[in-house]
Amino acid sequence: KFNNNQLVILPEAIGNLTELRRLEAKNNRLNTLPCTIRNLLNLDVLYLKKNKIANLPDNIGDLIKLNRLSLSSNQLTTLPDTLGKLTKLADISLSHNKLTELPITMGSLSGLRELFLSNNQLTSIPSTTGDLKKLYRLNLRNNKIRTKIINCECI
After folding, report:
1. What is the pLDDT of residues 56-83, one digit of tens each?
2. How far apart are CA 54 and CA 98, in angstroms?
């Protein structure tokens, strides 16, 4: 755990911890992630809440065992398409960022149960969100959405 420090970067050597299952670096000053993060193939939990992260590396999609991802209270404006490779993700917290759109690949997150997107700048969400069959909790409060979110056909 690296919580509650003044870290601006995580060391590149973090990628050498290939058996690491949980990485917490909440409440720091991180503005990016090292490219070696892709080596943490056994990572199950990644908590990076309350930092200054503006974008995620494309190789975040290599963390295929990731189950929980918390990036709330950062500076994210977009997310990489590779996020859709994280099919074991059960919950993602992206609230309190500056997201204006979501990648269409979000619909590939077949294991997703909870998606927190409150307090962003979203004007819509991708239609593929309707493919998230296990999703039971969706928070879109305090965004700029003005259109119908998901088409629903009733029989």
Report:
1. 999 999 999 999 999 999 999 999 999 9
2. 9
